[in-house]
Amino acid sequence: MIEISTSPATTTLVIAGDLDLAERDQFPEIAARVVGLRRQLLVIDMCRVTFMDSTGAAFLISLADSGRKRGGATVLRGCDDRDLFVLEVCGALDLFRIDVDHRCDPPAGAGAS
């Protein structure tokens, strides 16, 4: 699931679940919506991503590349090391700013006894 929210200068994508080949059918519509919003900053929240393959990485890369061509920036937050590795292997890590200060909220029910 991918949710889109906006502020005057920022578009935020919150991604939950798998970001992979099985989800690719929704990528073109989401990309078109994000590009159409024409915000300078795209924040991609990956706190709830459970798996990302090269198809998901290509989707993120296309979003970052579109923003960069318009003079914008793309920030990844909540990315785990595995996801960063996939982007690095694709040679695209430099397209993104990595939010190293962001801390994801614990999953619902975590820590409850």
UniProtKB/TrEMBL annotation:
It comes from the Bacteria. PROSITE patterns: STAS (PS50801). Residues 1-91 form the STAS domain. InterPro entries: STAS_dom, STAS_dom_sf. This is STAS domain protein.
